[in-house]
Fold Mevalonate kinase.
Amino acid sequence: MAERGLVVSAPGKVILHGEHAVVHGKAALAVALGLRTFLCLRPGGEGRLRVRLPGVGVLRSWERPGLSALREQLGADFDESKPPSAEVLEALKEFAGIPAEASGPDSLAILAFLYMCLAISAKYGDVPSVDIVVWSELPTGAGLGSSAAYAVCLAAALLHACGAISCPLKDGEITARWTEEEMTLINSWAFQGERVIHGNPSGVDNAVGTWGGALRYQSGKIKALKRVPTLRILLTNTKVPRSTKVLVAGVKEKILKFPAIMNPVLDSIDAISQECQSVLEAMPANPSPEHYPVLEELFDINQHHLNVIGVGHPSLDRLCRVTASHGLHSKLTGAGGGGCGITLLRPDTTPQAVEAAKRDLCACGFECWETDIGAPGVTLHSSSSLKAQVLHELSES
Ligand SMILES: Nc1ncnc2c1ncn2[C@@H]1O[C@H](COP(=O)(O)OP(=O)(O)O)[C@@H](O)[C@H]1O
Ligand SMILES: C[C@@](O)(CCOP(=O)(O)O)CC(=O)O
Ligand SMILES: [Mg+2]
């Protein structure tokens, strides 16, 4: 581990099409957002692991020998290809003093951290004494993949601390990325973190957090999109809280209850992702308005499907109605049930029209902002390049 520690970051994501269906083996199209989660890891003292997670109100530390003893006692097989076992998660809850039924943001964040420490150290050697601080530009639990960005940062930092991946940052460089092979390892451990938080994730969010850009994801297969035009997207946070884990479980229940009704809906969502990919890849880099009606119609159809599978919310219906009154098309993004929606802005949508839509959305109590997409994936930063931000976060710890 570098003497002075390290700072890593990973982006959140927007799913254009395929949320939920992707959990059931269908394709999803997702893009990395220009909003990121950051993690600063420094050598710590006194044989302890210390974490500060201001986003979820956590400041905790544990003695390393206690965690090592638990690992020995459990004697589990911590392979990144195997889902975390219920027995290990129960034992970790007990170790951290988390009640068995707890599923709040703080409990899940601690559990993901401890699981990754335990599993990564079982495979690559002990995680040294460290102080970790995580902060984020992403809202938590709003459909923008904050859980995956957190898990990707943890995976990169812990693998680095154990010496399982290199330090790609050369003297004088501000940022660096890991090799393909190292990113594949980061991605697979981040998926384990997502499994702790989500229960049954598809892996699309951690793939975007790791690789960045725009990609198609299906059953663990990641394909960067050939060409993605510059898309203008308005993001709106309804601020209605929800849990991805609960929503994903609800969809599964509906599919089991009505397979003949729900499976065709998932097939249709899959076809929407295929169609959208073909349209995007056929569009020029700076598209003109005539390319948009199909994209808009696909948004509308998918939003209806997402309501059918039970992940809509009155706040999202309202969001769609408000933007429709300005001639704009929206759908939920991520797990739904509240959280965020995305609105497609056309190249000829005037700044005045965007402002008017934003005003009406804010009047509903929503928060919205235009955003960049296609951001880089997991990145190592020189701490000097982030000095002000890092110093601010560290001064709080
Ligand atoms: N910055 C963060 N620090 C600690 N935990 C985080 C952070 N961001 C997300 N999480 C974890 O991820 C959970 C939210 O994940 P999820 O319900 O999937 O919503 P989303 O991924 O859409 O934001 C939180 O409850 C928390 O456990
Ligand atoms: C609903 C789902 O497709 C995306 C969840 O995204 P988020 O956690 O709401 O950002 C679940 C998954 O793909 O694991
Ligand atoms: Mg999530």
